[in-house]
């Protein structure tokens, strides 16, 4: 074979056009990928970035068809290859890392046997294959690399599984690896580890990579060049520094501004009385404790952000407060009255005063009801308004959420994700509540859409004086909406207080870990954050250092409440 | 999408059986009024071949076959419809309740249904009818019970799938009563597969009823019905005559057409789901 000239692109995409039925997905996209180079593909959902990533593998999703252009791997059109050769190309020369490693591994086989399979099919012998895989495990920072591969997919954590998938992609020493949102489903602290492991491994292996993500900050940490996609077309392309420092297109600038924090909400010192007080709350699923001695308060007309990673108990907190899950202990006081533990025991007016907005607007709206029926129901249910009055109020509410009155006749399937979430907000507002619990309301949305939702929630708070509990794992939005912050970890509140107190030094170590793990577009951030980070396992709430430090912070600001009490029993793992 | 545009999207394989069903229903409903003979009137020799006077020939007693097929269709189709409708009402009501309430209500209902489904329906029906006599109320009760079991199972599993969706949680948080949640939030989302099931239950009701009549334990005489007509005319087969095939063909045509329509209902549901996702 001829030697590969470094100046010759290894992958060339020429004016690629893809359609699903008559719907264009890609409208003529071109780029070159050179050996050893990492190209970031960024865009919102529907931009066509995943379709483009799969096209690099010579693969089309079901229902999609290539209607023009070509994808050349070393000058050869990948779509015209006979199936056998295309298979060889995909498993060995170009490999793929999917967003959900859990769905990509077969639960019935050990990790190592699955990673080794393409190598064995390629004719390798088992000794060297096992060595290659173990070296990769070591390089990706997996624990006990020599025996890690003997585990089954369900025996390892999500972050480890994602790294195992990266090992699988790198094992055949491919020329190109396609990463499709590999860290999107992970917690921020895990994302940091996986991102660093991927970056180091592809540098050391010298593979070229396509890195697909909706998060510009993540892409900027790992890519040499970035291409911005929107509606199946390229918006802008350039080296990472160029694109971040001097974006040429307005759309790129807007994406960049989202990842730089929005203007923070004003701190409300005047609001003192608590609309909701949570004292010593605990809850369990069966015998598994999920909330342990949680004490928090929501001040009237302000937002309490509850921050935490998956498994921290933040969503359970919402369920206990709303009565969907009964508490095992502790008290809830809402609007001056003790709150009954179960939904059935609460009266209609209490239910009205506390509304909830869910993470995924698609499942929170009944697909067989029109927007008018959905928003109108609380009006007729709680206030018994006559039909004409309901219609008038629905139109008002639709205006409040920046949609026109004509939306009342539409069905949820005719709305975009952001519009659906706005309808959920209008439904909550229709009850004229004192408190709205927002459970990850922006997590399923694109960054620009999420920004719009945050602005809307803030405006509605200013106009109507409603309080929010804003539950999220997305720390970027916390700064924009929170007046108070509570940081949760493994069912306990480890840090809480006014936003500025929590977000300024001295930090609680876990809070610091969370916020320093939040990706930024700054050059060298990834390496810095990784070097600075404390060992997450040393941060257990029971560690004496941690609670001592929080105690000091408590004394210093005089504003932190009920944070990090030493708990005798601990969390039992 | 409105209901009308959804209908317009159906292919010929839906329109054709739907058209046949409409024609049969109309003929059965109003046809007898336009015929010169009544169903029980003896108008000629036994098993006369097809002619202008008797388009489908005559039966084993010399009665006009066309008049009897239409009259028999009234009995068979209306009974099958009543059975399917009642079974749907009870089956889906119980299924929804079991799925939403869960706990001991669900366990009790589900185990009772399991128990009843363990009996071979035909033998159970024959026994019951032998004990209670073959009157129409007994027939309807027994058949409704068996059809309702299947509908219960489908409704329960559908409703459980829908009940965990967040819009149901929203309704519960709002303080809605069980009636609203079952019939306004859950049921509309399971309507398409339930309608297809209803159609299939109708077919099975018709077949079950015809089998019982063929065995002589179905619709009591003198009212003609399709299954009984097959039985009455069965001896003609030994003479190479087509008489018993006429009511048998009617049963088959209705069964196939209803199945085709139900099939396409489910099919469009799959299509619209994937288009949304």
UniProtKB/TrEMBL annotation, chain A:
Keyword Nucleotide-binding in annotation: yes
Species, as recorded: Azospirillum rugosum
Topology relative to the membrane: Peripheral membrane protein
Presence of keyword Nucleotide-binding: yes
Region (Disordered): 533-573
UniProt similarity note: Belongs to the ABC transporter superfamily.
Entry-linked InterPro entries: AAA+_ATPase, ABC_transp_ATP-bind, ABC_transporter-like_ATP-bd, ABC_transporter-like_CS, Oligopep_ABC_C, P-loop_NTPase
This protein's name: Peptide/nickel transport system ATP-binding protein
Single GO molecular function: ATP binding
Matching CDD domains: ABC_NikE_OppD_transporters
Boundaries of every ABC transporter domain copy: 11-256, 276-515
Domain of life the protein comes from: Bacteria
Keywords from the UniProt entry: ATP-binding, Nucleotide-binding, Transport
Pfam family, one: oligo_HPY
Main location: membrane
Localization (cell): Cell inner membrane
Lineage: Bacteria, Pseudomonadati, Pseudomonadota, Alphaproteobacteria, Rhodospirillales
From TrEMBL, chain B:
Localization (cell): Cell membrane
Transmembrane parts of this sequence: 12-35, 77-102, 122-146, 198-219, 239-262
PROSITE patterns: ABC_TM1
Main location, first listed in the record: membrane
Domain ABC transmembrane type-1: 73-262
Gene3D superfamilies the record matches: MetI-like
Alphabetical UniProt keywords: Cell membrane, Membrane, Transmembrane, Transmembrane helix, Transport
Statement: the UniProt record of this protein carries the keyword Membrane: yes
Annotated coiled-coil segments of the chain: none
SUPFAM superfamilies, per database record: MetI-like (SSF161098)
Membrane topology: Multi-pass membrane protein
Protein family according to the UniProt entry: Belongs to the binding-protein-dependent transport system permease family.
Protein's UniProt name: Peptide/nickel transport system permease protein
Lineage: Bacteria, Pseudomonadati, Pseudomonadota, Alphaproteobacteria, Rhodospirillales
């Amino acid at each position: 074979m001829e030697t590969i000239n470094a100046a010759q692109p290894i992958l060339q995409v020429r004016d690629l056009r893809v359609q699903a039925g008559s719907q264009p997905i890609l409208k003529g996209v071109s780029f070159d990928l050179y050996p050893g180079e990492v190209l970031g593909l960024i865009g919102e959902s529907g931009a066509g970035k995943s379709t483009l990533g799969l096209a690099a593998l010579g693969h089309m999703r079901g229902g999609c068809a290539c209607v023009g252009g070509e994808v050349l791997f070393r000058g050869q059109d990948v779509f015209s290859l006979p199936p056998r050769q295309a298979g060889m190309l995909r498993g060995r020369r170009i490999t793929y890392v999917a967003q959900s490693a859990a769905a990509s591994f077969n639960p019935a086989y050990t990790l190592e046997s699955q990673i080794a399979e393409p190598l064995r099919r390629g004719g390798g012998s088992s000794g060297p294959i096992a060595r290659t895989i173990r070296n990769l495990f070591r390089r990706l920072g997996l624990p006990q690399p020599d025996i890690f591969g003997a585990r089954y997919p369900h025996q390892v954590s999500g972050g480890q599984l994602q790294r195992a998938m990266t090992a699988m992609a790198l094992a055949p020493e491919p020329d190109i690896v396609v990463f499709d949102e590999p860290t999107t489903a992970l917690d921020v602290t895990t994302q940091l580890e996986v991102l660093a492991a991927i970056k180091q491994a592809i540098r050391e292996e010298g593979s070229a990579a396509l890195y697909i993500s909706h998060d510009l900050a993540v892409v900027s940490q790992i890519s040499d060049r970035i291409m911005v996609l929107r509606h199946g077309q390229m918006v802008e392309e350039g080296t990472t520094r160029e694109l971040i420092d001097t974006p040429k297109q307005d759309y790129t600038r807007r994406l960049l501004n989202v990842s730089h924090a929005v203007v923070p909400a004003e701190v409300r010192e005047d609001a003192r009385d608590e609309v909701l007080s949570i004292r010593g709350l605990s809850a369990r699923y069966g015998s598994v404790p999920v909330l342990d001695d949680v004490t928090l308060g929501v001040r009237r007309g302000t937002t309490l952000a509850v921050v935490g990673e998956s498994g921290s108990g933040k969503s359970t907190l919402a369920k206990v407060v709303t009565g969907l899950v009964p508490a095992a202990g502790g008290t809830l006081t809402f609007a001056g009255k003790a709150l009954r533990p179960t939904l059935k025991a609460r009266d209609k007016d209490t239910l009205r005063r506390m509304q909830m907005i869910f993470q995924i607007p698609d499942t929170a709206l009944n697909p067989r009801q029109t927007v008018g029926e959905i928003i109108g129901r609380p009006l007729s249910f709680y206030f018994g308004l006559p039909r004409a009055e309901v219609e008038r109020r629905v139109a008002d509410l639709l205006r409040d959420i920046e949609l026109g009155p004509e939306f009342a006749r539409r069905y949820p399937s005719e709305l975009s994700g952001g519009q659906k979430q706005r309808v959920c907000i209008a439904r909550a507002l229709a009850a004229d509540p004192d408190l709205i619990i927002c459970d990850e309301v922006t997590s399923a949305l694109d960054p620009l859409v999420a920004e719009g939702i945050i602005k809307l929630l803030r405006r509605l708070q200013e106009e109507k004086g409603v309080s929010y509990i804003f539950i999220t794992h997305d720390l970027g939005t916390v700064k924009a909406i929170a007046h108070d912050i509570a940081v949760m970890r493994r069912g306990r509140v480890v840090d809480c207080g006014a936003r500025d107190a929590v977000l300024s030094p001295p930090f609680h170590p876990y809070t610091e870990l969370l916020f320093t793990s939040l990706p930024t577009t700054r050059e060298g951030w990834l390496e810095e954050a990784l070097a600075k980070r404390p060992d997450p396992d040393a941060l257990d709430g029971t560690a004496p250092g941690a609670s001592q430090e929080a105690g000091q912070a408590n004394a210093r600001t005089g504003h932190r409440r009920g944070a990090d009490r030493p708990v005798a029993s601990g969390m039992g793992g | 999408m409105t209901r009308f545009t959804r209908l317009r999207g159906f292919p010929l394989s839906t329109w054709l059986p739907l058209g046949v069903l409409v024609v049969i229903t109309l003929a059965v409903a109003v046809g007898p009024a336009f015929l010169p003979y009544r169903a029980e009137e003896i108008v000629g020799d036994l098993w006369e071949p097809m002619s202008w006077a008797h388009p489908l020939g005559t039966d084993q007693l010399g009665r006009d076959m066309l008049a009897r097929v239409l009259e028999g269709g009234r009995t068979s189709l209306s009974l099958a419809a009543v059975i399917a409708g009642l079974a749907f009402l009870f089956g889906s009501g119980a299924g929804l309740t079991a799925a939403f309430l869960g706990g001991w209500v669900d366990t009790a209902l589900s185990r009772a249904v399991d128990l009843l489904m363990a009996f071979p329906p035909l033998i159970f029906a024959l026994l019951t009818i032998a004990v209670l006599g073959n009157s129409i109320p007994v027939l309807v009760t027994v058949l409704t019970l068996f059809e309702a079991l299947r509908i219960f199972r489908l409704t329960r599993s559908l409703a459980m799938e829908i009940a965990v969706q967040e819009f149901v949680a929203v309704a519960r948080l709002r303080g809605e009563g069980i009636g609203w949640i079952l019939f306004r939030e859950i049921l509309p989302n399971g309507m398409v597969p339930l309608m297809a099931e209803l159609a299939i239950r109708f077919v099975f009701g018709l077949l079950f009823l015809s089998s019982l009549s063929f065995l002589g334990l179905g619709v009591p005489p003198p009212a003609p019905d399709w299954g009984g007509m097959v039985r009455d005319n069965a001896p003609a087969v030994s003479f190479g005559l087509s008489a018993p095939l006429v009511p048998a063909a009617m049963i088959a045509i209705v069964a196939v057409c209803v199945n085709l329509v139900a099939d396409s209902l489910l099919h469009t549901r799959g299509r619209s789901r994937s288009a949304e996702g």
